[in-house]
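Budget justification aside, the reviewers requested a transparent look at the raw inputs and outputs of the sequence design task funded under Objective 1. We therefore reproduce one unedited record. The lines immediately below are the structure tokens for a 84-residue chain.
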């Protein structure tokens, strides 16, 4: 069985968190659209505050794990591949 390196852990975590962030963002937009359609101020507030806060935390964690990628051995080796 292949061992998990820090690069693999950070890469998978950042990918998963970005996916959750995007799905959460779509959920916020759809929830607020629904709230406007039915005229519910409470629902609008919920999607604009509580749900959006969770989505922002997911985005921040995705950014942190992406940043950590550059400080792993594999990340340092691959960093030069994207330079022009």
């Amino acid at each position: 069985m292949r061992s998990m390196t820090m690069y693999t852990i950070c890469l998978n975590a950042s990918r998963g968190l970005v996916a959750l962030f995007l799905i959460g963002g779509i959920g916020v937009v759809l929830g607020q659209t629904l709230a406007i359609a039915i005229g519910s101020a409470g629902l609008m507030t919920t999607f604009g505050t509580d749900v959006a806060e969770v989505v922002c935390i997911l985005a921040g964690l995705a950014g942190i794990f992406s940043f950590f990628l550059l400080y792993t051995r594999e990340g340092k080796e691959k960093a030069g591949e994207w330079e022009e």
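The chain has three helices and no strands. The two ends are 36 Å apart (CA to CA). Computational costs for records of this kind are itemized in the attached budget.
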